[in-house]
Amino acid sequence: MMVGVLLAGGASTRMGRPKAMVKTEAESFLARGVRRLWTACDSVVVVLGSDARAIRDRAEQEFERLVSSGTLHDDLRNAHGHGAAELEVRFAVNPRWKQGMFSSVRCGLEDALELKPTAALLMPVDHPAVTPMTVASLAGVMLQALAACKRGRERDQFSYALIPRFRAQRGHPIALSPALARAVISDRGADSLSDAIRRSARMVGYLDVHDRGVVVNRNTPV
User: Fold this and answer.
1) What is the 3-state composition of the chain as percent helix, strand, coil, each rounded to the nearest 5?
2) What are the residues facing 147 on neighbouring strands?
3) Which of 8, 17, 36, 180 is deepest in the core (most CB within 10 A)?
4) Is it the case that residue 14 has pLDDT exceeding 80?
5) For strand 169-170 and strand 88-93, is the pairing parallel, antiparallel, or unpaired?
6) φ/ψ (deg, to 5) at 2
7) DSSP string spanning 93-150?
8) Kindly report the CA angle at 198 between 202 and 8, in degrees rounded to 5?
9) Confidence band (pLDDT; 50, 70, 90) for 218?
């Protein structure tokens, strides 16, 4: 099972309102992010911080509407294709959200690892233009890399990150092996996710994609 982590804990000061609830094509950034990660993940952990209670309430109401309207039927059909019996979204509240995104990364990965995933996919909520194909491709390559580890112990210790690139520019979502996710959580010397990956990854792979959405983060109103 692969688990997604959607980072939505910031204060959204530049956006002027909760970024997670900003709409794109009549769907919130939060719902769009969860549905994108569901392309390859059975479960998605949404990390909240600022205005957590209000955002969760609004998100749950939105998902209820999506279910009742039948909008999620295709998502569930796709989930059956990658072996999931159902789709799940969980909410985690990062009490240290004011310390920045990396604190939310740790919070989300801790919850994700409780599900004993094959790998984790991390994505900020302000990347709503990422395509389902990119998510599926990242998951597929990560699974291939893990499968290449012939012994279970080798796989358990394989500290690997897979990062998408668009025209030589690195973006999101980022796939992490469980070993690297554990290292990121425990690394108190790192000051960002990229720093933690640099310090702890045994191997970093790059997947070139024809998806500009991996490098487009929406921080301000359009």
Assistant:
1) 45, 20, 35
2) none
3) 8
4) no
5) unpaired
6) -100, 140
7) E-TTGGG-HHHHHHHHHHHHHTT--SEEEEEETT-TT--HHHHHHHHHHHHHHHHT--
8) 115
9) confident
- State CA 69 to chain mean position distance: 25
Using CA of residue 215, residue 103, residue 59, residue 122, what is the dihedral sign? positive
Per-residue pLDDT band for 222 (boundaries 50, 70, 90) equals: low
| Cβ pair 8, 125 in contact under 8 A | yes
Distances (CA, A) of 179 to 25, 109, 206: 37, 11, 18
> With the CA atoms of 180, 171, 188 and 98 taken in that order, what torsion angle do they form, in degrees rounded to the nearest 10?
-140
Q: Dihedral of the CA atoms 176, 177, 183, 185 (nearest 10)?
A: 50
Domains of the chain: 2-215 (3.90.550.10)
Question: What is the rounded distance in angstroms from the CA atom of residue 109 to the CA atom of residue 191?
Answer: 16
Confidence of residue 16 (pLDDT cuts 50, 70, 90): low
* Sequence-ordered strand ranges (E) for the chain: 2-8, 23-24, 27-28, 43-48, 88-93, 119-124, 160-166, 169-170, 174-176, 203-208
The pLDDT assigned to 155 comes to: 84
Extract the tokens encoding 106.
């740790």
Residue 125, both tokens:
């909520």
